[in-house]
């Protein structure tokens, strides 16, 4: 009798726990469903399926993404004690009057942290992957939290001509920010340029279809006199458990009358980096993702040393590392991307500029490269201690021969 009683208690406890879990999942789905976005249908879906990048019901990379799940789990045990700042960061708060005078050289980049930057190029203003929210998550109450407030309020930005989105992960596609930009630009010609399929999210959130331009790799559009070209990238997409790679990912080349700029989005290293440089370069500035890497996911994020090599493959003149110093999304110390990128750039004689968040850079005036250190000196792992080597490159990736053929 006692055994039966315990079984009954355990059975009821399990049922109760299951009910609590089911309710919790339901709350998460209901609370986050708008932020998850929406899948493409109709003509949009048909266009996606005609893409050379579409395979077996989803988008695919020419070089597959390799994941080492064992190292991913063991990496948790060796997380840096400095994954986030111990003290408030020295951010440069932006006076909106800065943008009343155009850049003397025709090209100015203002880094807001992570992958958000305002690119002023030959009379046009382009905002890349703008994230002004407190958290990168479908929820306002949980998820990676930013380390500092935006250097400038959205309302204080100068008129923007185009927003370019590299892919639909939360730290790049931020619904509240896009809706605020939509509302602030009702009387302007602001357009949202996105990879294939991402437009479905934007329309679902209320951005007018006529303001959305969707591009496949190598496709281009014009913003005034500026040409915007979507370029290949090596990454992935998805905002929910069941939509992996249902939208495309991309980088962007911004080609003006005088200047050229390249933004990588999120990417691993891949052979077509050289093709981008040959077809669309040389670039006066490259803004290449440098942080959130680990050898357990070597193809998702390029890592500092390979980012410098990619800059060379792209035929870049000045490099600005991005995708660091705002969110903790990996195991490495938060200053490590800057330290490693700086060491690699010095070794390969690459002109590298590391502005503090909120600072503006005119690449043509930055011949000396690396600015004064604005981050603290903390312990970090070197490339020899923790190498990041993307797979599928065929021959070894070196400074003299960056990126072998697969």
TrEMBL record:
The organism's place on the tree of life at top rank: Bacteria
Q: Which Gene3D superfamilies match?
A: Ribonuclease Z/Hydroxyacylglutathione hydrolase-like
> What organism does the UniProt record list as the source?
Myxococcus llanfairpwllgwyngyllgogerychwyrndrobwllllantysiliogogogochensis
Q: What is the official name of this protein in its record? A: MBL fold metallo-hydrolase
Metallo-beta-lactamase domain ranges (all copies): 124-324
> What residue spans carry the region label Disordered?
37-58
Q: Does the keyword Zinc apply?
A: no
Keyword tags: Hydrolase
Sorted alphabetically, the Gene Ontology cellular component annotations on this record are: cytoplasm
Q: SUPFAM superfamilies of this UniProt entry? A: Metallo-hydrolase/oxidoreductase
Q: Where is the composition biased (Basic and acidic residues)?
A: 43-58
Could you cite one Gene Ontology molecular function of this protein? hydrolase activity
**Stored Pfam families:** Lactamase_B_2
UniProt cross-references to PANTHER family, sorted A to Z: N-ACYL-PHOSPHATIDYLETHANOLAMINE-HYDROLYZING PHOSPHOLIPASE D
